[in-house]
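User: Could you go from structure to sequence for me? I need the amino acid at each position, not a summary. Structure tokens:
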């Protein structure tokens, strides 16, 4: 579980994002085929770019361009399936019923959790947290089946 996804899930993600992330091979460039693996490893472990460069035997500058591009491709490919925010009272009630049936917790629509993603000190120090370091907060709400309902990154 190097990337913390099963081989079947990895292949499914690769099949869907490959047309977006695949670069054209030229005389001067041989595109990395491990772009998705590098990105998933970074997302799963939080490894820094230097560690990933050593582990995957490629340049730090390559990784610094690769990871944001693959993340954008994944987000664009899956956005309509993953982030299905309810818009009607009936849809919210359905979520509450599912949560009660599956987890035996009434009057709940989901589970909320957060994480502080460490960053270097920015020019504006709005992101200094109570833990004593600079970070961007991430909050996520998931339904009874662990599907994302809502995500907020860096909110104040």
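Assistant: Here is the amino acid at each position, in order:
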């Amino acid at each position: 579980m190097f990337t913390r996804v099963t081989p079947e899930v990895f292949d499914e993600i690769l099949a869907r994002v490959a047309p977006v992330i695949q670069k054209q091979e030229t005389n001067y460039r041989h595109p990395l085929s491990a772009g998705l693996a590098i990105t998933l490893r970074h997302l799963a472990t939080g490894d820094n770019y230097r560690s990933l460069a050593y582990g995957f035997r490629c340049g730090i500058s390559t990784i610094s361009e690769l990871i944001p591009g693959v993340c954008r491709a994944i987000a664009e490919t899956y956005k309509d399936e993953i982030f299905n925010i309810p818009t009607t009272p009936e849809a919210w009630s359905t979520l509450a019923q599912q949560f009660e049936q599956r987890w035996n917790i009434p009057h709940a629509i989901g589970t909320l959790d957060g994480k502080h993603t460490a960053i270097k000190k920015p020019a504006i120090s709005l992101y200094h947290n109570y833990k004593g370091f600079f970070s961007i907060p991430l909050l996520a709400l998931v339904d009874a089946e662990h599907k994302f309902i809502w995500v907020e990154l860096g909110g104040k």
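One structural detail worth keeping in mind: Helices lie at 7-21, 35-45, 49-56, 60-82, 89-103.
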